[in-house]
Amino acid sequence: MRRLDGPLPTALEALAAAAADGNAFLLAGDGAFHLLDRPDPALLDRAIRTDRPEAWRTLDATVLHSALLEHVWHVPDAPEDIAYIHDTEAAVAQAERRGGTAVLMHPVREEVVRDLARQGVTMPASRPPSARSRRRAWS
């Protein structure tokens, strides 16, 4: 993990560059941005289900839920602990306001979603609309 100096657009550019090489997340909420990329392959092997296609196992959403939230940070996947906010600036603002952390990542490409759906594989769970705007902001 490395600290990024500069405004949100600069941090998002760094996220985009890192995401081109694999899983990458931008953490915000303490007045700064932190880039988390190149997750440990051993952690991913331990944390992520092996009964799913490779495309599913390598999704940022899968890595976030299975490896980071569950195994590293021990954050329950519960409405009182996680909010899904699909607006970058709003997620960062909420994290700053509430003393939480926004985890920003790139959305899944539509063709990946379609390919997984053809295989009968659903995307990693996301919270229903009623669970939004809770304590932590994850985007």
What does this structure look like?
By secondary structure, the protein is of the alpha+beta class. 40% of the residues lie in helices and 14% in strands. The protein is built from six helices and six strands. α2 packs across α4.
Q: Sheet with the most strands? A: 4 strands, antiparallel
Helix coverage percent of residues? 40-55%
In the sheet with the most strands, the strands line up as 1-3-2-5
Shape: globular
Order of helix and strand elements from N to C terminus: EHEEHHHEHEHE
Summarize this structure as a short list of keywords or feature phrases.
4-stranded antiparallel sheet; single chain; alpha+beta; two-stranded parallel ribbon; 6 strands
Lay out the secondary structure.
Blueprint: E1 2-4, H1 8-19, E2 24-28, E3 33-37, H2 41-47, H3 54-57, H4 60-72, E4 83-84, H5 88-98, E5 102-104, H6 110-118, E6 137-138
Parallel strand pairs: 4-6
Antiparallel strand pairs: 1-3, 2-3, 2-5
Provide a short characterization of the protein structure:
This protein is of the alpha+beta class and 139 residues long. It has helices at residues 8-19, 41-47, 54-57, 60-72, 88-98, 110-118, and strands at residues 2-4, 24-28, 33-37, 83-84, 102-104, 137-138. A hairpin with a 4-residue loop joins β2 (24-28) and β3 (33-37).
